[in-house]
Amino acid sequence: MTFKTSYLASALLLLAARASAQTANAEAAFATLQEWYDPVTGLWNTAGWWNGANAMTVIAELAAVDASIVQDAISIFETTFSVAPSVNPSNGVEKSVGTNGLIQTTYPAGWPNNTISKRAIQDSTDPTVWLDGANDDAEWWGLAWVAAYDVTGNETYLNLAEGIFNEIAAGWGTNCGNGGIYWETTNHYVNAIASELFISLAAHLANRVPANAATYTAWAEEAWNWFASTGMINANGTINDGLTTDCVNNGQPVWSYNQGVILGGLTELNKISPNESYIESANSIAQAAIAALADSNYVIHDYACEPSDCEPNGTQFKGIFMRNLLLLQRASPNDLYSKVIEACAASIWANDRDTTTGELGVNWAGPFVGGDATTQSSAMGALVAAISVE
Ligand SMILES: *[C@@H]1O[C@H](CO)[C@@H](O)[C@H](O)[C@H]1NC(C)=O
Ligand SMILES: *[C@@H]1O[C@H](CO)[C@@H](O)[C@H](O)[C@H]1NC(C)=O
Ligand SMILES: *[C@@H]1O[C@H](CO)[C@@H](O)[C@H](O)[C@H]1NC(C)=O
Ligand SMILES: *[C@@H]1O[C@H](CO)[C@@H](O)[C@H](O)[C@H]1NC(C)=O
Ligand SMILES: CC(=O)N[C@H]1CO[C@H](CO)[C@@H](O)[C@@H]1O
């Protein structure tokens, strides 16, 4: 008994020590990320509009497991909430898919600059001031405000996320099988990311807004049933970028973020409306994604762009996969998932970090080749996820 107790106690101490080392690494990554934060724009220099939503989300995730940064996180949420709409790139955003299959976003010349913004005067509680014409961008902000709500319990953020969702839902598509969320309001490319984010945002809201849970659940179910029938999930069980104008899989790259967002969506949907098929589908996609994107050391890559072609926006993707793999790991634990998360975090720290500046780069296996707020917040996603699996 004594032996067992002390054995248990030392095992717990060991676990706590590991978790605190992971927490310290994540806190260091956070401190470096904030060197790019501009309180005048509420965004992170070197990163775009949609990337800002992801940087805010990873900070909220750290705050959810690390009480010591909660006050900092609250202050970032408040600043970003009040000023970011003033630099919404608005109608300046024009997206296209580049030759390497990567999203190209064009911001107005001089952006971010609130004197040239079309949204200079704004009420941050108005969901339309978060819309920029790119549906996925608004959905990232919707999820970011859900994450801020989870940390603060502040209903202002949850109401904003609902408002953003309702704006996007009004554009439910008709091009392919009467469904889906178009990439942009003016570009009706039916792609994976905008539709996956819609499923995930609906399912997150369903779990947090009891009064409208049935409506959000119904949206998430309709959107998932549509998504699963489109052919975006290929014969390998991974997800390509989108559909052709003839509504068949366009064979564009299997980006890590497209394998990730759906995992969080299905996990949240299963929470509000349990159905084993949701978790089975999520496990199938996660395992296919790991088979396709992990190297022999279990480190995730976006092979389609690494190491040198991920700029400007592919640098953000892998952290999104980590965040959502962790949600699946919590709902349906699997040693493979924790091994991948731990391997990514350990490799970033050992092989993909500038030990002088604290910057983290795009190739998680290393070598470090330079960082910005997108590579930093993405890699930080792996460090934060690792806190919870050890
Ligand atoms: C909720 O968030 C808003 C916007 O940041 C802020 O003005 C308000 O003070 C917050 N409410 C509480 C109770 O903290
Ligand atoms: C913002 O844009 C205005 C108008 O183009 C310009 O005059 C001003 O110098 C810019 N400010 C910054 C900080 O770039
Ligand atoms: C499935 O994976 C194999 C091996 O990576 C690849 O050659 C093939 O193109 C993939 N098929 C599809 C439909 O993506
Ligand atoms: C579970 O989900 C699957 C796929 O969406 C659906 O076909 C099935 O009817 C659902 N089962 C229940 C009991 O709702
Ligand atoms: C974060 C980031 O690199 N965003 C970029 C997305 O792409 C456009 C250009 O295509 C850049 O202007 C953004 O900086």
TrEMBL record:
SUPFAM superfamilies: Six-hairpin glycosidases. InterPro entries: 6-hairpin_glycosidase_sf, Glyco_hydro_76, MUG_Protein. Keywords: Signal. It comes from the Eukaryota. GO terms for biological process: carbohydrate metabolic process. Residues 1-21 form the signal peptide. The keyword Magnesium does not apply. This is Mannan endo-1,6-alpha-mannosidase. It comes from Talaromyces pinophilus (Penicillium pinophilum).
